[in-house]
């Protein structure tokens, strides 16, 4: 095991060593291959695309959270000069249903709209403003229906069903977890009702793309997404076209964080392109973006822990209710995580838990970084602090004592079969140096240059959190990735090209793929081919899984290529292949002496292999007890937050947000730090400021003026310790990195605010009025 | 509407501009310069930042007509030359080398804002950097590596100035110390 610490001790190669596109193996931090294009403005994001003779598509959306569509009149819109097409559900040629887990959402609303912002009609025109004006001229007659907006009422017997054909009514999914029962008495009992607000992914690149018809009934779609193949299947179904008649190509992705798992403009642009015969570009405004993707589920959490007098946990009880909104999206899997992981990384002899997700007429909710674990963490970490206070224990030591260890079963009975350093992580963040005393610079004080305090009324607080998350797709899903690797000679030099359909969304997978190819094939030049559906699925850029799963596929394809090349070299050299390896663009003997140039061995006969790679299978948890090996890997992280709170005004300044995380093996240490820093700040945002406000089914703040995400002034210095306890079951020992910091940072910030303000705050985000009330 | 303006040193013009179009739209959709980005189009995120007559502005908030006859510099105009041989601006180089780029959508705006900051203040302190960049949202990085990049670019610029003038100026390390004054660490 090794530990990397930043600041101060991160090995950082000199910049000169990192600027070459031909260096960087596993464990190095080569520069991003797309970095130069991104700093010069040349990188082509999905909203940058342009095509000769293209037109613009816009969406008309429902103003009502629940209504019957009585009639739609498109006459005036069609008559506007410059308009090429106006489409409604009646124009959908295929099956008018989309959805990640349940195909329950029309691409265009039919007889009913179920949330404010649901797409109703489309316009294509020669200018975006022409299209917008035409859309405003579409006359939709609605009969408004009562809206179900309180998720706690969704399952009442007298509540109307939003999807009458759904077999469990307004219940999208329920996951019970029962273990070791019945629930015993306990000398110490703590409980909480906690509420988590609706968070937005707030990626900066708007939903956008370009659909280009091929003139033969098919279409090429260039789009920003997390999973090309699931998009492709849904698009083809709605368009009513055959396999591979819609070819998807990854355009530059301006961030994702879960918000690009579901379709947005994909089908709409293709419908317009096939109808008009023209390339169609769509690009959402920020306001439309708030309606164009799912959000993180708001949650109601009722938790109770029982413990011995010394704080050793005896049981955990919990009821988690996730508001899924109008359509299922990935609510089922979020509920699965909330259930199977809902009590955090602790040892519970007895568990009685139920997690459920329900339909309402609120905005649809689905995937966001942390996926079901973020919400639960606020409640279980609240209770660990409450328990520590009740029994007079140190909150860090209480967590360490109850923390999972390798070999323990978790609450679904699955044995944690690699490192589970809960105690070490939480103690490490405690042992980091604390920030110094408050300074006098306004920027370091709550309220900042608003000049609201010079220190009077300001109290400091410290909070801790330790959490865990499943990595990869779970519950029996066939989770695989496909990679094609080719070794050939270009300009006299060996070049490895790597082709997958895996979505680079900013995290740096393009670097990781090249690092793996260089390591496995001993070459310096690697080309990462554009991701598209010309190759098999890579699965989603979700669940912190791509370095693990697509990395595994690239490694496996490289191994196949290497074996063939070495066989060929062995035949020529007259030595056993097993005695050869590839290094420095050469075929070398075991001892390292150069036997042949790789380019000479390849000649004009390239070697290419395509392979699928799967992680270990998982199982669906038992429907009655939730027991089973539902997940393939777990990743652990801890945070310590230090905050200053102006208790008179309710303003908060986060002074430090320090963390320790086990990443198994840091394939690219700089990218690991980037994930931890960005992920930590997203979690902090949920604790402090980020909430999509919904009243009576209407979103009140669909803009960056009113939906706040942390700026550089809100963001504290972050001390990071990276542990590398390899997972023996994963390629190179990797453990997913992207999500854990978003889970553990928020509860630490909330705890620090509670400590500073001396208030029992049971909801996030914590707003000033909660602190001063 | 017809407009003429100077972009990255070259005279440019556009015809049939609808008066409601922003400078951002004209740059991106009419002049083939999509470097300035369309993340919010309401002046909140800074991703569309360009120089207008030497002053950084959110180009989404400037009506195209207002830019007529004026000089615009976009992120595309900061590097010298083009293609493989181009010479990146020290700010651009620092963003790449410090891992300040993830998805990169905020990057063009941050580079223009940083470029402007260092033009005005070659050796900014940590609070000065944060204040100057407070109008540029980034969702991927948590800003840490962006701050590293700004410090690094500041040092690189000082090195350039130092070698050009022969004068001794502050070291990169002293900038770094300011940068993490709260914890007293050297980065």
UniProtKB/TrEMBL annotation, chain A:
Domain of life: Bacteria
Biased composition (Low complexity): 1-14
Protein name: Xanthine dehydrogenase, molybdenum binding subunit apoprotein
Coiled coil (residue ranges): none
Region (Disordered): 1-33
GO molecular function, one term: oxidoreductase activity
Location of the Aldehyde oxidase/xanthine dehydrogenase a/b hammerhead domain: 40-146
Organism: Pseudonocardia ammonioxydans
Automatic annotation (TrEMBL), chain B:
Keywords recorded for this protein, A-Z: 2Fe-2S, Iron, Iron-sulfur, Metal-binding, Oxidoreductase
GO molecular function: 2 iron, 2 sulfur cluster binding; metal ion binding; oxidoreductase activity
Iron-sulfur among keywords: yes
Name of one Pfam family that matches: Fer2
Domain 2Fe-2S ferredoxin-type: 1-78
Keyword Ligase annotated: no
Stretches the record annotates as Disordered: 162-187
InterPro entries listed in its UniProt record: 2Fe-2S-bd, 2Fe-2S-bd_dom_sf, 2Fe-2S_ferredoxin-like_sf, 2Fe-2S_ferredoxin-type, 2Fe2S_fd_BS, Beta-grasp_dom_sf, Diverse_Oxidoreductases
CDD domains noted in UniProt: fer2
Highest rank taxon of the organism: Bacteria
PANTHER family: OXIDOREDUCTASE WITH IRON-SULFUR SUBUNIT, XANTHINE DEHYDROGENASE IRON-SULFUR-BINDING SUBUNIT XDHC-RELATED
Protein name: Carbon-monoxide dehydrogenase small subunit
Species assigned in the record: Pseudonocardia ammonioxydans
